[in-house]
Structures are given as structure tokens and as C-alpha cells.
Fold:
Amino acid sequence: MAPSAPGSPRAARVRARPGFAIRPAAGADLDQVIEIDAQATGLSKPEYWRGIFQRYAGRARGQRWLLVAEGEEGLLGFVVGEVRDWEFGSPPCGWVFGINVRPSARQGGVGTRLLDAICDGFRHAGVREVRTLLARDNGLVMSFFRSQGMMAAPFIALERAL
Structure:
């Protein structure tokens, strides 16, 4: 989790937020993760998050991560992802499928440090790329990932109504 070099474009955009640490999520964090997600998405999904916690939280889970940013006032944000192998013909890569930061903690480097931490886990697992999916009309999340150096991937998501 190396910080951005002083004077780098990324370092210039991040307003430092002192006093928070990144750590693996524990069962006691569930309610705050549900709350942060509901603030960001407008939907409360407690059953979904209970399932995620069963599979990803707590002790080391191999190639799965659920990390939280914790400050003096409680949890500030979270990130969840895993290494996926050979889906859609892709070599193993890291997938981030959830990242959220409390609105009051945004633009303080929390999201950047969470993404850096999970990417460190991906690197240690031997993968060289990270991917995610997002709604094309979600400008906030798109701007965040673009600011982190992410760009269009070689895959296109397709769907059909059922």
C-alpha cells in the first residue's frame, strides 16, 4: 500500500484524512458496512451483506478480500473483491465488486487506500490486472475509478431482459 509520490497527479488530488487504518473486516463490522452501502446505493441489502461476510470476512480467505477503513468515528468505507480465473477466456485477474466510502469521508484518500490495499492482495496472489463493472450512468464511481488509472477493458457486458 505505497502512498502516491509527492508531486504526482494522484497525490495532488487527494486531500489527506489523518487517523484511519485499513484492515480485514470482522463480523462486528457488518452493520456499518450495510449502512455505508445503503447510504451510497439508496438500498438496504442486509441478507446480501450477511452472505458476503460469511464468504469474505474474518480470517484469511485465500483469494478473497473484504477490507474496511476504520477511523476514530467508526468505519469510513469498505472494498470487496476476489481473484477470478479464466472466466470469459481471461487469465486470472482481480475483480473489485464493491467499494463505498461514507459521504462525509470522501475526498480524503479513503477510497484510494482501500483500492490500493486490495490491489496489493491481488498482486501477492500473482495477478497483474484488476477489473470492475459499474453502471455507465454512475458518474461518481466512474470518476473515482478513472482517477485511479482504470480504463475501458477488452470485454463488453451484454444483457437481455427476461
User: Anything to note?
Assistant: The domain at 20-147 is CATH 3.40.630.30 (Aminopeptidase). Strands lie at 20-24, 64-71, 74-84, 93-101, 130-131.
